[in-house]
């Protein structure tokens, strides 16, 4: 099993420069395609690799990869501010706490044959570090306490270091079974209209329930 730092694989790679891949991008977003990782992630993703358009995945092999040292933040050009790459409760590397804007996160992803099958992080447990993270993403002390005061106060009682990982079991089963779609390994997959065929959800809500919850619906049923 390999371990790679995020900075070693982020950005434009040889895969992106592949002739068939470039042609695919041009057809998806036009001749002015800018080949950064945001464009690549948006128009390709697992689908590009899984369909074997450039034969990057050998289904007869099992390749596992850990990706570590993600950056804590990325720049949001629309809002002109930094935002958490993972989430604002991810702990920074201890040696990077002096400059959080360029800090690496204690986050990790597990990749199986090009598909992310797990991910997690170590969490912040010190109130001062958490406050610094909030400030870095543009939250004032007042805003932070208004939204997350319960968390900052809980840290004052001696929260222990903690972390975790979540696995995508249905995706892992899909890969092991050699299926093409994750829907084939989900017990009750939703339809393309996000409806559940088992429970027929979402279902209509009667007026009495809406009044109890002080919700006003603007939906007009078709006659």
Features:
223 residues; alpha+beta; 5-stranded mixed β-sheet; flat
Layout: helices, strands, pairs:
Blueprint (H helix, E strand, L loop, with lengths): L1 E4 H4 L9 H11 L7 H7 L1 H6 L13 E5 L4 E4 L4 E4 L22 E6 L2 E8 L4 H10 L4 H15 L7 E5 L1 H9 L29 H6 L11
Parallel strand pairs: 1-2
Antiparallel strand pairs: 2-5, 3-4, 5-6, 6-7
Helix pairs in contact: 5-6
Beta-strand content estimate:
15-25%
Query: Based on helices, strands and strand pairing, what is the structural class?
Result: alpha+beta
Catalogue the unreliable spans. Answer: 11-18, 33-40, 42-47, 49-53
Report the average pLDDT across residues: 80
Strand line-up in the sheet with most strands: 1-2-5-6-7
| Helical content band | 25-40%
- Specify the biggest β-sheet: 5 strands, mixed
- What is the H-and-E element order? EHHHHEEEEEHHEHH
Supply the number of helical segments.
8
Shape: flat
Measured distance between first and last alpha carbons: 59 Å
Rg over CA atoms, rounded to whole Å, is 22 Å
